[in-house]
Amino acid sequence: MSNNQKKDLKKIMAFLNGEMSDKKTALFKKWLEIPSNLSIFKEYAILNHKIELTANRFDAAKNFKRFLKTTQQEKSKVIKLNRLKFLKYVAVFAGLSFGIAFFVNQQQKASTNGNEITLEIRSKTKSNLHILEKEEKLVNTSGETIASKKENQLIYNSPEKELADDLAEVNILTVPYGKKIQLTLADGTVVDLNSGSILTYPSHFKNTNIREVTLEGEGHFTVTTNKEKPFIVNTNAIRTKVFGTKFNISHYTNDPFSEVVLVEGSVGVTAINNTSEDSKNIIMLKPNQKLQYLKEQQSMKVTDVEVYPYISWINEVMIFKNEPFDNIIRKLERRFNLQIEIKNKAFTTERFTGNFDIESIETIMNTFLEDTTLNYTIDNGKLTIN
Fold it and tell me: Of the candidates 271, 276, 322, 268, which has an alpha carbon nearest to the alpha carbon of residue 295?
C-alpha cells in the first residue's frame, strides 16, 4: 500500500469513526465529491461486500448519498468506539447508513422461565416434553422419530403420508431468554426463533388447504412455496398470510407494537380480531416494507425500510437506528436474560444508533453510558442503571 493509499484509508477511518472535527468533516465531504476519490471509497466498501449484511445488491454510491443525508438529519446519539478495523466500519456503513460495530461473543445465561430450549408434543391423549440440548432425535407420543437435531438446528422429517386429523399432534417450541434456534418444518419452511419466543405448530401439516402456526416473540420465516396451501402465522394481534416468501415477525407481549417486515415475496396482514376475508381489510406488503400494529390504538401503519436491521439478530448482530433506549433495554433483556431497571427515567427517551456483534452486556453498557454521568451494577441477574 502506497503512502497516498494509507492516507486515504486513515482519512476514511477517521471519518467513519467520528474522529473528525466539523471543519475536517466538511473538507472530507468535499473530497468525496471528486469522482476518483469516491471510487477509492467504493473500492474499500466492495472489499467487504462478502460480508452478507443484506440480500439486496450493495450500491456504495447510493448508500453514501443516503449516509450524507442521514447525518444531516439524524438527531440520535451515535455510539463511538476506537478499536475497530476499517473493514468492519464498512460493513456497518453498508447495512446502516452509519453506525459502529464491535466484535463479541454471544453470552448465554439462564432464563427466568427456564434455561433450556424445550419442545412439548401433545396429542389428544398424551404429552411428551423434550429438553432439546440433551437430545439428538425427537419422537412423538407414539414413539416414532419425527425430527432430528444438529447443533442449533431442529429438522422435521417429511411425512410419507398425511395423517388423519384425530392423530395430529401439536408441537410447542419454547426458546428462553438468551437462546435461539433454527427450525425446519415438515414442508421445508425454515423458521429462526429469537430469544423469548414460543412457536406452536403441527408435526406435519394436515390434509387441509392451509399451513398454520402461532407465534409469540420473534421469528424469521423462509416459507416453502405451495400455491395450494398458503402459510399463515397467527399472533394474538395480527394474522399474516403468505404463499412463499421471506419475512420477519416480532410480537412480544411487553412491546407496545407488533411488526411484520417483508424481505422477499408478498404477504397480506390483517388484525386478528378481523375475521373477514374481504380484500379491503387485508394490507398487502411489498419487499422492504414494514407493517407496524400499535396494540393500544389497534391501528396499522406501513413504511419503507431497510430490512437488514430487522433480521440482523439471525447473524448474532444487534442494530439500533435512532431507537429509544427503553426499546433497546427490552431487546437487551431478551438477548442476555437480564432484568434491567433504569433509575433515571429521563434516560429512557434518549435515542441511539449503533451496531453490535454481541460481546457482553458489560461492554455494551459501557458504550451506551460512556458520555453520561450514569453508571450501572449487575447483581443476581438484575442490571440497575443509577
Answer: 271
Write the burial class of residue 160 (CB in 10 Å: 0-12 exposed, 13-18 middle, 19+ buried): exposed
Residue 384, CB-side half-sphere exposure with 13 Å CA sphere: 5
Residues 6+ apart with CB under 8 A from 16: 86, 89, 90, 92, 93, 98
SS3 category, 260: strand
Mean pLDDT, residues 252-279: 85
Query: Taking Cα atoms as reference points, which of 377, 259, 359 lies closest to residue 310?
Result: 259
Q: How far apart are CA 133 and CA 130, in angstroms?
A: 9
What's the CA gap between 79 and 352, in Å, rounded? Answer: 7
Contact of 97 with 353, CB cutoff 8 Å: no
- Pairing type for strands 267-271 and 238-242 reads antiparallel
> Within 10 A of 285 (CB to CB), how many other CB atoms are there?
21
Beta bridge partners of 301: 292
Q: Identity (one letter) of the amino acid at 246?
A: K
Cβ atoms of 131 and 118 within 8 Å: the answer is yes
238, burial (CB in 10 Å: exposed 0-12, middle 13-18, buried 19+): buried
Task: Give 47's contacts (C-beta < 8 A, 6+ positions apart).
Answer: 87, 90
Residue 137 contacts residue 154 (beta carbons within 8 Å): no
Q: How many whole angstroms separate alpha carbon 181 and alpha carbon 198?
A: 11
Among left, alpha and beta (phi > 0; psi -120 to 50; other), residue 164 is beta
Which cell goes with 206? 394436515
Domains and CATH numbers, the chain: 3-96 (no CATH), 118-308 (2.60.120.1440)
Cα separation of 72 and 62, whole Å?
A: 16
Q: Which helix (H) or strand (E) holds 70?
A: helix 60-73
Which pTM was predicted?
Answer: 0.69
Give the model confidence (pLDDT) of 79-128 as tens digits.
433 323 333 333 333 332 222 222 222 223 333 356 889 999 988 888 88
**Measured between alpha carbons, how far is 148 from 133 in angstroms, rounded to an integer?**
12
Which tens digit of pLDDT belongs to each residue from 311-326? Answer: 999 988 888 888 888 8
Rg over CA atoms, the chain: 23
